[in-house]
């Protein structure tokens, strides 16, 4: 998990510094996907524990 996050942040930083327009358009997309995946995995985990 931590390796993936650090890798994503490194790529994101390089993208933003190399091309601010692309960086600013990609940043919200990555953040929203991170939040979405976090919420989805959180829900799946809760549903799994409740069903057990």
Give a concise summary.
With 52 residues, this protein is an all-alpha fold. The chain has two helices and no strands.
Q: How would you describe what is shown here?
A:
With 52 residues, the protein is mainly α. The protein has one domain (2-51). The protein has two helices and no strands. It has helices at residues 2-18, 20-51. The longest helix has 32 residues, at 20-51. The protein starts with a helix and ends with a helix.
* Head-to-tail CA distance between termini: 26 Å
Structural class by SSE content: mainly alpha
Unreliable runs, pLDDT <50, ≥5 residues?
1-6
- What does the average pLDDT come to? 65
- Kindly state the number of beta strands: 0
What's the overall geometry? elongated
Work out the strand percent: under 5%
Number of alpha- plus pi-helical segments: 2
- Share in helix: over 70%
Characterize the largest beta sheet: strand count, sense, and whether it forms a barrel: none
Provide the number of structural domains.
Answer: 1
Report the C-alpha radius of gyration, rounded.
15 Å
Helix/strand order, N-terminal first = HH
Keywords for this structure?
disordered N terminus; mainly alpha; 2 helices; single chain
